[in-house]
Amino acid sequence: MYNVWLRNFLFFRKTFMVSLFWTTLEPLMFLGAFGFGFGHYISSIEGMSFLQFYFAGLLCTTSMMVAYFEATYPNYTKMTHQKTYAAMLLTPVSTQQIFFGEMLWAATKGFLGVLGVFLISSLFGLFNPNFFVVAPILFLLSLVFASFGMIMISIAKNYDSFVFSTSGVIVPLSMISGTYFSLEEIPYYLKTVAYIFPLAHAVRLVRTVLYRELGLFDLVHIAVLLAYLVIFSMIGQRLFTKKLVN
Amino acid sequence: MSLALNAIGLKKNYEGIPVVNGISFDIKPGECVGILGPNGAGKTTTIKMIYGQVIPTAGELLVLGLNTKKDITQIRSRIGVVPQEDCLDTDFSALENLLLFARYHNMDSDLAHAQAEHLLAEMKLSEFKHKQVEALSGGMKRRLAIARALIHKPQFILMDEPTTGLDPQARLWIWNYFERLKANNTTLVLTTHYMEEAERLCDRIIMIDHGVILDQGTAKELIERHIGLEVIELSVGSEKGYWLSKVEQAGLKFQEYEEKLFIFFETSELKQSFIGNIQNTHYYVRSANLNDVFLKLAGYQIREKS
Q1: Among A161, A175, B229, B249, who pairs with A156 as Cys (CB 3.0-4.6 Å)?
Q2: Looking at the 3D structure of chain B, how many domains does it have?
Q3: Which of B223, B245, B275 is the last residue of a domain?
């Protein structure tokens, strides 16, 4: 598993500037436009400034987006055109090791994106020591969406298939999970829908750890993320193996 | 001595259609065996079952005494595979490709470097070692794929059409290299379309088509059994009926192909006496070869790749 992760890290070393651009600079542009720009017109939301409110959401969407995209497009290329996995399977590396190695790498990349956003936004006054507490939660969130991405590559027919998961799941989740607006102020049934999915739990938890008092009930959010991770990994690993060895 | 490979009733169905249909064969250590067959015969599927990328529908397959169902990881650590498509990692250079593979084999880093440099030199790739894989020619990529299969010094090597698409010089170089591996007592299993390749390299040839073994033996045995010593290619044109009756009367083995008859002779005397009958018809005499056996067993019709 480590060797699969390492293969990606070695490639990342060659191309990190491109990676840095989309994993870190893109979220920072959102932070500029929404946090600093749009947020200027809102006095407070859930007892905090809109910038703080949005920053917590942005860390989570960055973690989700980067891990998901890293697990889908490049991995689908490795699975099909590049035949990287077929080559790995000529060696003692197993499909499970490839699956978890890739998942771990996509989550690492997601976390690197989060770290980049945190470090740069700290320069603009958003430094928060509790970041070191939310870091494992954000990594867990990256793992959840990396495993979701791995499921998608295992069932995709071509690159167009990812339009369904991106436009049908990832983008809507980034909108409805309490990133831009408070889930406390929307109708109950809409709130329930938002909390069916993992992102809302992560956003809520990260925001609480960064700016509020942590309660015992907040552990439920971690349990939900872990449950998603276990279920997605189990399903993904089976589908992935079936796709590569038949 | 235990067998390098033992396949018993090996079967693979895709959506209920058999691609490999219950084949059984053995390979001894140090033997070079060629699996020959037209497109879609089941060669690649058979090879993929040996290294575990295809799971057999039925049958037993033991590689180096290990069962592919249970011990595929161990098998893969002891065999080298050159797949039909090179599957080189295009994100990396030639040297990095070898080092990555060494890592996948859990090799010690110093040993991996030494072995990679040695193989690059052996494959005449040293000066291109820092080139990205995409920048290499077809022949170089193939040599790199062979080097990659040898990185962990396996004693059993599988090669799926190792010289397809290469120019004659590259092919000759690879043949010579395989002969060196053979001299080193390495077990080699290769699939090929090239009869010359099989005749030249293989101690034994297994001919398969439609997922079954048509025959197996040395090239000499197969040629003698199915063809004989010499062949006359007779351009019969519109007189096919006349010549067919002549050949049948003489009790000779033959094959029809469009406006030609391939007539097979077991002795030179038989051939000479038949030539005495030919007056105004164009003919061509040549030695019988493995190609004749292949065409006779697999048929003359063109197979498109599916």
Answers
A1: A161
A2: 2
A3: B223
Same domain, B115 and B87: yes
CATH number at residue B157: 3.40.50.300
Give the domain extent around A95. 2-244
Contacts 24+ apart (CB under 8 A), B179-184: B181/B157, B182/B30, B182/B32
Chain A from 226 to 245: CB within 8 A of any B CB: 244-245
Residue ranges of B 76-105 with Cβ closer than 8 A to chain A? 76-77, 81, 83, 85, 87-92, 96, 100-101, 103-105
**Residue B75: closest C-alpha in chain A:** A92
- Per-residue 3-state assignment (H helix, E strand, C coil) for chain A: CHHHHHHHHHHHHHHHHHHHHHHHHHHHHHHHHHHHHHHHHCCCECCECHHHHHHHHHHHHHHHHHHHHHHHHHHHHHHCCCCHHHHHCCCCCCHHHHHHHHHHHHHHHHHHHHHHHHHHHHHHHHCCCCHHHHHHHHHHHHHHHHHHHHHHHHHCCCCCHHHHHHHHHHHHHHHHCCCCCCHHHCCHHHHHHHHHCHHHHHHHHHHHHHHCCCCHHHHHHHHHHHHHHHHHHHHHHHHHHHHHCC
Asked whether residue B300 is domain-assigned, the answer is no
Q: How many domains does chain A have?
A: 1
How far apart (Å, rounded) are the C-alpha atoms in residues B246 and B224? 23
Residue of B nearest to A11 (CA): B91
Q: Which residues of B touch A6 (CB under 8 A)?
A: 103
C-alpha neighbours within 13 Å on the C-beta side of residue A194: 23
Structural domain range at position B237: 228-288
Same domain, residue pair B13 and B89: yes
- Taking only the tens of pLDDT, chain B with its 306 residues reads 589 999 999 999 999 899 999 999 999 999 999 999 888 889 999 999 999 999 999 999 999 999 999 999 999 999 999 998 899 999 999 999 999 999 999 999 999 999 999 999 989 999 999 999 999 998 899 999 999 999 999 999 999 998 887 888 888 888 998 999 999 999 999 998 888 889 889 999 999 999 999 999 999 999 999 988 999 898 888 888 888 888 888 888 888 888 888 989 988 888 888 888 888 889 899 999 898 898 888 876 666 554
Our CA-based measurement puts residue A76 at a distance from the nearest CA of chain B, in whole angstroms, of 14
A223 touches chain B (CB under 8 A): no
Contact flag B85-A83 (C-beta cutoff 8 Å):
yes
**Is B149 among the domain residues?**
yes
Residue B182 belongs to a domain: yes
Indicate if B173 and B132 belong to the same structural domain. Answer: yes
Claim to verify: residue B283 and residue B151 sit in the same structural domain:
no
Domain shared by B71 and B113, yes or no: yes
Question: Same domain for B124 and B242?
Answer: no
